[in-house]
Design goal:
Its cofactor is [4Fe-4S] cluster; Mo-bis(molybdopterin guanine dinucleotide). With 839 residues, this protein is an alpha/beta fold. Helix content is 28%, strand content 18%. It folds into four domains: 2-119, N-terminal domain of TfIIb; 137-192 and 397-511 and 540-579, Rossmann fold (3-Layer(aba) Sandwich); 198-390 and 620-654, 3-Layer(aba) Sandwich (Dimethylsulfoxide Reductase, domain 2), CATH 3.40.228.10; 673-831, Barwin-like endoglucanases, CATH 2.40.40. The strands form eight sheets. A seven-stranded mixed beta sheet has the order 9-8-20-19-18-10-11, with helices on both faces. Strands 1-33-4-7-6-5 form a six-stranded antiparallel beta sheet. It is globular, with a radius of gyration of 25 Å. 62% of the residues are buried. Bound molecules: ligand MGD (2 copies) and molybdenum atom. The site of one ligand MGD has 36 residues, from helix 4, helix 20, strand 19 and strand 25.
């Protein structure tokens, strides 16, 4: 048994890369008892994690229902324990390729939120300014009446906006996508994936022609170097980190590079930590590439055969030698050189990229440079040479694939008439109804249209923008507008739902069925384990009900949405995916049930799925096939089909370049420090679920400000003192955690809104604490992802802490400088089982 609040990653099971038997020395051979021994070779040992509710034993469990994790994108397979019609715990699935039985702390304890007494049980409508309970007919009736009035009036589809999630299921997104694109015909649809993985998609399209991760999680088993680009994987995809740590503790461990302004657990583990100034990733990347080219550490043959743009790239990076990056990023020159040495000498490099790049300055440009390193070194499409432009949310990949983020389903190109024709044929509608006269409207623009009044109906599903969007004072003003009809479909009465005209109570994970796809293209099925509370309904049923009531029809008068349950929706999606990169035609619910997850493309020709993409060095850049014709990375200007054809890609990847530019907001005399924001291991986003799981909430009950010891001393700040942060947008107050962030930078977790989700209700009379009160309305020119990671602030001390430390956890990046701060622990309530299978 282990307290997985105190011990985030559990017991180590060291292992080494697969090697031919004759190459293994006796000392390195397979050991029966992992942990104490040097470890074994080849495959990651099984360790099954389990947590059951107090008083329950395994023998009390009546059914184990298969699912996968819903609180991050790793796709860890698990079984839900059911007894007496309730969820009573979870257990990792030993046979699954992704996690081999392991679970993340959020997954072990987070399911308890399903049973919260605060779950929405009935629809709500606004009456005389207040939200009152009603029935489904009344709630849906109001939405449909307003929809028909708008659709039939002047401006029609232009008044509709849909803002969805990365947390629903594939079937739900596809249904929503068809309603939006072929029912209403609006381009104003996006997901919160815009805040999350828009840059992953954009960078993959720019370099390789379409979305889709080249790599596989098994690359961790084979690699000899791991580079983590702005990714605190130890706290945000803990099971993937366990796999990396197990390699690091086994024979022939991979080298490790971390790029992060804070002393995260990843940074502490790495051989080289580049604590860059927030907003300067691009200078570092250009310098690393400069060095690789300068030293001749690239694969000339691969570059010649499989890429376009080498000369331009050389031209751009020429001006950015390591010395220049060391100055701009404010990191030691020798560290830049050391990182380049590792990148240049590894034979099997694995990279992961996440929010430190995607939500920072020049997001797509910087993410593309990681692609460039892999292309230059020919590090794609073979074991260990892996690249993940990471996802964050559990189903963000599906939002993108199915077109619920505004892209066209099946990674089709909105600007390619042939792709529009394919969809029109599939759905049996006129091509003209499918929006394709301009790029899909991105989330920040949808909110802008609502602000200006042209979007009059905004339907938010499974997102809490009143806490998660930048510049919250503005977002609240928009959501509260009299002339905006706001529909919120959620499982709790969130900060956003409080502002709605209609609130629809949704069933969630464990209470409904559907599929989802993790970052390495592994598809899992989650089955329904228990009934939802009250009148709550699956999101799929809500969308199907809307389609029925709106009476959307195809060209021949038949219902546009002809499916009726998750499996029939999945079959409809399969037809849409056929022949595209994300081809699901070989996947069935039957295949996914029982066995482990399956990686797309999975077709009758590849019935067990596909481990890696681009194994032959042929990319999806063909003009007739690609998802996008690309952009200028500096301005965001879009290229057209003609430009793309003229480049004659012929299956080659693009090496795209851009010079470094400073962030849109830099420090000034008034705002002399940089604010960056992000996550802690215990909470998920706006905490609607994790604050309702006692073990998780108790580990991080209140917000905090991370500040470096030198800055704290200069401001006269001690651990636990109350600080005020002010940016040009707003103010927040929280207690100081003096710890290892870089000098001049403060960090605030973005999880805490103005509502306490632990039953104590809205916070009144207290100063705001949400990180997004301070962040800026500004986005990457290519991916349109907001810049959450860089804002200028002024920091002042408001009051002393009387020697009481802040409530920040001690386990992750917020590990305190002061050793006297009591360690975060979960105690008996957090005791979980971990069972290591002996070889
Ligand atoms: N525990 C937990 N896990 C989660 C989630 C969660 O809410 N909680 N959410 C999931 C989701 S949706 C996502 S998107 C992922 C996000 O996962 P991550 O990207 O790992 O998480 P973040 O904390 O947002 O950001 C990562 C790091 O970026 C660093 N950073 C800030 N500015 C810069 C910069 O300019 N350059 C560089 N190189 N680094 C910078 C921060 O210090 C931070 O440590 O996590 C997923 N997993
Ligand atoms: N400052 C700052 N801001 C950020 C970030 C950052 O790093 N810094 N990160 C950004 C990123 S990467 C992300 S992903 C976003 C996340 O931002 P949000 O999407 O706003 O965050 P969540 O709290 O996950 O909101 C999901 C909502 O869906 C509800 N929900 C859960 N399951 C279901 C379901 O099955 N059906 C329905 N209908 N509802 C459900 C939950 O109760 C919750 O209210 O925040 C972004 N904002
Ligand atoms: Mo995210």
């Amino acid at each position: 048994m282990v307290d997985r609040i105190a011990d985030l990653w559990g017991r180590r099971t060291p292992y080494g890369p697969p090697v031919p038997a004759e190459a293994v020395s006796p000392a390195e051979s397979t050991h029966a008892v992992p942990g104490e021994e040097p470890g074994r070779h080849g495959s990651w040992p099984v360790r099954v994690d389990m947590f059951l509710d107090d008083g329950f034993e395994e023998s009390d469990v009546e059914a184990w229902v298969q699912a996968a994790s819903i609180l991050h994108s790793n796709g860890d397979a698990m079984d839900i324990a059911v007894a007496g019609g309730r969820i009573v715990g979870v257990r990792g699935r030993a046979g699954d390729r992704v996690n081999r039985g392991r679970l993340d702390p959020k997954d072990l304890y987070g399911w308890q939120a399903n049973h919260s007494p605060e779950r929405l049980r009935r629809p709500l409508v606004r009456e005389g300014g207040r939200l009152v309970e009603t029935n489904w007919d009344t709630a849906m009736g109001r939405i449909v009446a307003r929809s028909k009035e708008l659709l039939d009036g002047p401006g029609g589809w232009g008044h509709f906006g849909f803002y969805t999630s990365g947390q629903l299921f594939l079937e739900e997104y596809y249904t929503l996508g068809v309603i939006g694109k072929a029912g209403i015909g609006t381009p104003h649809m996006d997901g919160n994936t815009r805040l999350c993985t828009a840059t992953a998609a954009a960078a993959l399209k720019e370099s390789f022609g379409t979305d889709g991760q080249p790599g596989s999680y098994t690359d961790v088993d084979h690699c000899d170097a791991i580079a983590l680009w702005g990714h605190n994987v130890a706290e945000t995809q803990t099971v993937l980190w366990m796999r990396m740590l197990d390699r690091r503790r086994g024979p022939r461990p991979p080298a490790m590079i971390a790029v992060d302004p804070r002393d995260t657990p990843v940074a502490r583990e790495a051989d080289v930590h580049l604590a860059v100034r927030p907003g300067t990733n691009m200078a570092l990347m250009n310098a690393l590439i400069h060095r690789l080219i300068d030293r001749g550490w690239y694969d000339e043959e691969y570059v010649r055969a499989h890429t376009i743009g080498f000369d331009e790239l050389c031209g751009v990076v020429q001006d950015c030698p390591p010395e220049r990056a060391a100055e701009i990023c404010d990191v030691p020159l020798r560290s830049v050189e050391h990182a380049a040495d590792i990148l240049g000498s590894s034979e099997r490099l694995l990279s992961t990229v996440l929010q430190g790049f995607y939500q920072s300055n020049q997001a797509t440009a910087a993410a593309c440079q990681v692609n460039n390193i892999h292309l230059l070194r020919g590090m794609l499409g073979r074991p260990g040479a892996g690249l993940y432009q990471m996802n964050g949310q559990p189903t963000a990949q599906n939002t993108r694939e199915t077109g619920a983020d505004g892209d066209l389903p099946g990674m089709r190109n909105w600007n390619n008439p042939e792709h529009i024709r394919e969809l029109a044929e599939l759905w049996n509608v006129e091509p003209s109804i499918i929006p394709h006269w301009a790029p899909p409207t991105h989330a920040m623009q949808i909110f802008r249209y609502a602000e200006q009044g042209s979007i009059k109906l905004l339907w938010v599903s499974a997102s809490n923008p009143a806490v998660s969007l930048p510049d919250l004072a503005r977002v609240r003003r928009i959501l509260a507008k009299e002339d905006l009809f706001l529909v919120v479909q959620d499982v709790f009465l969130t900060e956003t739902a409080m502002l709605a005209d209609v609130v629809l109570p949704a069933a969630t994970w464990g209470e409904k069925q559907g599929t989802f796809t993790s970052v390495d293209r592994t598809v899992h099925l989650a089955d329904k384990a228990v009934e939802p509370p009250g009148q709550a309904r699956a999101d799929l049923d809500i969308f199907l009900d809307y389609a029925r009531r709106m009476d959307f029809r195809d060209k021949d008068g038949a219902p546009l949405v002809a499916w009726h349950d998750p499996e029939s929706a999945f079959e409809a999606w399969k037809a849409c995916s056929a022949g595209r990169p994300c081809d699901y035609t070989g996947v069935t619910y039957g295949l996914l049930r029982g066995a482990g997850g399956v990686q797309w493309p999975c077709t009758p020709a590849a019935p067990r799925g596909t481990e890696r993409l681009y194994t032959d060095g042929r990319f999806n850049t063909d003009p007739d096939f690609c998802e996008d014709y690309g952009h200028d990375l500096v301005t965001g200007a879009a290229y057209d089909a003609e430009h793309h054809r003229a480049l004659n890609p012929g299956g080659r990847a693009f090496l795209k370049a851009a010079a470094y530019q400073p962030s849109p907001e830099v420090t000034s005399e008034d705002h002399p420090m940089l604010l960056t924001t992000g996550r802690t291991v215990y909470h998920f986003h706006t905490r609607t679920k994790t604050a309702r799981a006692p073990q998780l909430n108790d580990a991080a009950p209140e917000s905090w400000v991370e500040i470096a010891p030198g800055d704290a001393a200069a401001l006269g700040v001690a651990e636990g003192d109350l600080l005020r942060l002010e940016s040009p947008r707003g103010t927040l107050e929280a207690r100081a955690r003096v710890c290892g962030t870089r000098p001049g930078v403060v960090f605030v977790p973005f999880h805490y809104g103005y509502w306490d989700h632990d039953d104590s209700g809205p916070r009144t009379g207290e100063a705001p604490r949400a990180a997004n009160e301070l962040t800026i309305t500004s986005w990457d020119p290519v991916s349109k992802q907001p810049i959450f990671k860089v804002a200028a602030v002024r920091v002042t001390r408001v009051a002393g802490g009387d020697g009481v430390p802040s409530a920040a956890p001690t386990t992750g990046a917020a590990a305190p400088a002061d050793p006297q701060v009591p360690a975060t622990a979960g105690g008996p309530a957090a005791r979980a089982r971990q069972h290591v299978e002996e070889a």
